[in-house]
Amino acid sequence: MTYLSPRLQAIYSMVPKGICADIGADHGKLMIALFEGGIITHGYAVENKKGPYNRLLKALQEKGLENDIVPLFSDGIRDLPEAVHTIVVAGMGGNLIIDILKKYPNKTQQVNTIIIDAHTAIPKVRDEVCKLGFVIADEKIVREDDIFYEIIKFVRADKAMYGDNDIEFGPILRNEKCATFKEKYENRIDEIDRLLSNKSLPKERANELSKEKERIQSIL
Fold this sequence. Notes:
Layout: H1 6-14, E1 18-23, H2 29-36, E2 40-47, H3 50-63, E3 69-73, E4 86-92, H4 94-103, H5 105-108, E5 113-118, H6 122-131, E6 134-144, E7 147-156, H7 164-169, H8 171-176, H9 179-196, H10 203-219
Helix pairs in contact: 4-6, 9-10
């Protein structure tokens, strides 16, 4: 079985059985593990740069899986076939992920599940993907190499009502309040306190940070 890091293992655990596409598949480890584990019957691994695509292709060929996990040299989700049930988009900034999903709207209409690991703009990702006709079905937070990663599983469903705290902190994460979630935001409070101790900090920025601290304290 292919070894997966804690972040990739969290994504793996969210993927439903069926046909999956990994956008920005890197070395294809996630897709290979999903196939080895019997989670997917067929898949597509997408890269849009020659170097990463060639590494992906080599990794699949070494496993003899290039026919089961089809490598695509493509722009995001543009060339995905209609058979794809699940899209994984991981390891990118949130704004880029949103651009990828919205660039070809007909492709998001055909899938039932989108799993996202955004490294920035996470609240915006929650908001924008829900606007595409999805709801938040699951969320996980993991710490890897001193970085906190939030993985979100969206499923196609009627619109759900989310409040501001749900969008900012995650409806499932803030309700479960696991130890890793608390650690992330306790660390953020400590960071805010250090920033506020700077007497030359502009008043507008100080007020912004103080309000952020209040929001965090309200959900911990």
